[in-house]
Amino acid sequence: MITNNDKQLFAKHLLTEAGWAKDVLIKLDCNGVIKEMKPNTKLEPNFSGECLQGRVIPGLPNSHSHAFQWAMAGLGEQSGKNGDSFWTWRQAMYSFVDSISPDDLQAIASALYMQMLKSGYTSVGEFHYLHHNTNGAAYDNPAEMSQRIFESAKESGIGLTLLPVFYRYSGFGEQAPNDGQKRFIHDPQAYAALLDNVAKLSGQYQQSFGIAPHSLRAVNQQDLRSAISHLNTLNNKAPIHIHIAEQMREVNDCLDFHGKRPIEWLLDNQEVNDRWCLIHATHMTKQETQSVAQSQAVIAICTTTEANLGDGHFPMMDYKKHRGRWSVGSDSHISVDAAEELRWLEYQQRLAQQSRTLLVGGGYSSNGLWLWQQASRAGAQSLGRQAGVIAVGNKADFIELNSDSFSLMGKTDEQLIDAFIFNHQFSNDAIRSVWVNGLCQVKDGIHRNEEIIRAEYKNAINRLLQCRS
Ligand SMILES: [Zn+2]
User: Fold this and answer.
1) Domain 60-382, CATH
2) At residue 266, does pLDDT exceed 80?
């Protein structure tokens, strides 16, 4: 077992809250938390710790993941008979779900988290809703699938906030769940018991947890309240995630049932604060945009999934004007690339506005730096993780960039993150090493458990795709 007792690292260039620092000695406690950072330190000849020669920036938290969906990424791109939409994709996803076993889920999630780490994500919020066996009955251990996700986080080394999903109905007005949803469903008592189990597991695995009421269509007002009050008995600071306004059909159904739009209803009926993370707040009015920004909740924008599913444009310019907090998530994992989520967030604005460098404020500022810092700080908030900035008291979650990669060769500190995000190269060698809790998980593009994780994924995906053919 690797431990961090009195571990020390040395970084030649490191991005702090105040800007770039040089020759930084970093001391960690036994939990991988930074207890001291000393810039401008002369490296002693007998220094026994690891020395990071590349430039070091915070790792990006990934606020929104459905791990199992990665196994079907790329399989929803053939045109259907009567046209495709989010809803036809969802039907295809439900049929895929039917064959996933606990071993499959663990193999998929381990490989996915490994790929996340290689791309610059150091933690993930798993919005986990595949709970039951293929008949819809609970496993002997009702938290079996949750435990598999914790195991995957351990195998891969990623920081995890497990968000067990509370899913009860198929639509507004307490519509009965459909057959495709049978593996997701809980009544309030079973959900509370699951949450108790998840809280215990998170302690055993030294990870974090929160809750994820799936959406306003999947739980009623009482369910939402009871889940939050039960969470508060376990941890009254833990995060609360919800899918909120991804599709116009969902907004219209909410209007029909509640007489209010989903975000409007949520803000009127819950105390939404900095514990909340609203996933896909795609369809917001100007008033909703301003109110969410003022609440200090985080909005998780899943740029590539929202594009892939044809969700719509998130009103980023307006939200930014109100200083709203936001992070990114790879969601369905149609792309697992931290920089790409940010690049396309900016590119969406450029295409719409016919202009450039739109998201950063002020003249002569680095757009890439702004994007990375906003998403890493708010991402850490959304996961209830002490991280997002490399600072004393935070977990040592960071990535070391490779100055010898084609994208980053010759770049100054000021140009570095712009080049990392916007000079996209197929070779994908811009990251030299990845650290979570002060432990190195990826070095020179290779994960510490690369071979076994890859082999297990190959077995699982071959079996799953054969089941379908
Ligand atoms: Zn989602």
Assistant:
1) 3.20.20.140
2) yes
